[in-house]
Design a protein that fits this description.
CATH architecture of the domain at 2-111: 3-Layer(aba) Sandwich
Strand order of the largest sheet: 3-2-1-4-5
Strand content: 25-35%
Oligomer: single chain
Number of strands: 20
Helix content: 25-40%
Distance between the termini: 52 Å
Largest sheet: 5 strands, parallel
CATH topology of the domain at 2-111: Rossmann fold
CATH class of the domain at 2-111: Alpha Beta
Bound molecules: adenosine monophosphate, glycine
Structural class: alpha+beta
Radius of gyration: 22 Å
Number of helices: 13
Length: about 450
């Protein structure tokens, strides 16, 4: 009896009113997982999508409008804010909460503006890795004052040449060029404002050839926990051809990432990353998403992000058995040492259904039918909204993720594809070869 009372008290004390910022498939996966926790007293998603409504209350506000986020946090007596996308973090939303007397008591999952530079500035991330001796492609950085040095430097390189806009450029800031003249033209265009301020500094990087994978680390600044590993598929076409997209599918766990590879990632990359954050006093309480490439079985960092990945989250969270509310709370409260990460050993595959024409121009507002026919898969919404008659409408390029479990990722993929076939909207497209290179 006494035990039960204690258990109840304990539950109550951790019971939380949560505000989740963002509107994509990643945020639907967050809300799906958060709402399964006995500690999730209330969940608000700003702005959310038609799928997140099943797990909480959508609030029509823009996460980059900090005063609006503040008003919502106060009105709904929020205990914890979780920031899904990078932009509010890079703009300093964590600092905004930390510095406001009315908001200071609210736990915040996501790094400070200084910490978010790991994603917000490629030049910062490269210098950070150099300082910490973390394996990554060799690089130089240039501003417009040193354009001539940059052009000369490119002449000495072997193509392909990788050019990266320093700042956030909506996923379009990385160019890979097969000849030096083109690279020189692009460097000039970037430094002269092709991506606005984001390309005022450009990082020129050595091209690495290998297979990529995504590692997600929750850290409270001192301790860290590693989530299930995933691989995403960014190109629109099968066989990884055609234009880059926000992501066409994901798999967890990619079999080539074995225990030995993870040991190398932990020793050479995760630990020195956490140490570097500590040394620089970056106040990092949130997710570090490490984009890695395996080059002849050696891991190198391609990029850091300061948030979970999309569409990786749609495959990673279904494999996470640990209570996500507790994982987030402990991250923000600097109590991560006490959390155990438990994983589902099954494989998971997610297939993204996109609008016809994406990633080029596409139409929104198409009616989505037959979602009810999906069996033994999870549907995560991305670009969806509810129409005036309660019908489900497309509202973006990436529309839905269909996620399934299996003994192998091939089995999981087959299940997702079986269900993808049933779902209908005008122009629907998806890749059938997710995981083809594994
Ligand atoms: P990022 O925005 O840094 O993730 O870059 C986008 C994509 O460009 C990555 O996912 C890689 O596929 C590719 N990429 C970036 N840097 C390199 C590099 N140094 N070598 C080869 N490919 C790269
Ligand atoms: N899946 C890559 C990203 O979220 O940036």
């Amino acid at each position: 009896m006494l035990l039960r009372i204690f258990a109840t008290l304990n539950l109550r004390s951790n019971s939380m009113r949560i505000l989740l910022l963002g509107s994509g498939g990643r945020e639907h996966a967050f809300s799906w997982k958060l709402s399964q926790s006995p500690n999730c007293e209330a969940l608000f998603i700003a702005p959310g999508n038609a799928g997140t409504k099943a797990h909480g209350t959508n609030l029509a506000l823009n996460p980059n409008d900090f005063p609006a986020v503040k008003a919502a946090a106060l009105e709904h007596q929020i205990d914890m804010v979780i920031c899904g996308p990078e932009e509010p973090l890079v703009r300093g939303i964590q600092d905004f909460f930390a510095q406001d007397q009315e908001l200071q008591h609210i736990l915040f999952v996501g790094p400070s503006q200084a910490g978010a530079q790991l994603e917000g500035s490629k030049a910062f991330a490269k210098a950070f890795m150099e300082d910490q001796d973390i394996p990554t492609a060799a690089y130089r950085e240039f501003t417009v004052e040193h354009l001539d040095d940059g052009l000369k430097y490119l002449e000495e390189q072997q193509p392909p040449i990788v050019l990266k806009a320093d700042g956030l450029a909506a996923g379009k800031g990385v160019l890979i060029l097969d000849n030096i003249i083109e690279a020189q033209e692009e460097l000039r265009a970037m430094l002269e404002g092709k991506f606005g301020d984001a390309s005022a500094t450009v990082v020129v990087e050595e091209f690495l050839s290998g297979i990529e994978f995504s590692v997600f680390v929750f850290t409270d600044g001192k301790d860290y926990k590693v989530l299930p590993v995933a691989k995403d598929y960014k190109r629109i076409g099968e066989g990884d051809t055609g234009l880059n997209t926000g992501g066409m599918g994901s798999v967890s766990h990619p079999p080539f990432v074995d225990a030995e590879m993870m040991r190398k990632v932990e020793e050479r990359i995760i630990k020195p990353t956490i140490e570097g954050l500590q040394q620089q006093n970056l106040g990092y309480r949130g997710v570090i998403f490490i984009g890695l490439i395996s080059v002849e079985d050696e891991p190198f960092v391609i990029e850091y992000n300061c948030r979970m990945g999309d569409p990786e989250t749609q495959s990673v969270f279904p494999r996470l058995k640990t209570d996500l509310v507790e994982l987030c709370r402990a991250t923000a409260a600097e109590e991560l040492a006490n959390v155990n990460i438990e994983m589902d050993e099954r494989a998971v595959a997610s297939v993204i259904l996109v609008s016809g024409g994406y990633p080029g121009s596409y139409e929104k507002g198409k009616v989505i039918t037959n979602l009810d026919a999906v069996e033994d898969s999870i549907v995560f919404h991305a670009g969806t909204k509810e129409g005036e008659q309660g019908e489900l409408l497309t509202n973006g390029g990436r529309v839905l993720a269909i996620t399934s479990y299996g003994d192998t990722f091939q089995e999981a993929l087959a299940q997702s594809l079986k269900n993808a076939e049933k779902v209908q909207f005008d122009g629907v497209y998806y890749r059938k070869d997710i995981g083809f290179d594994l």
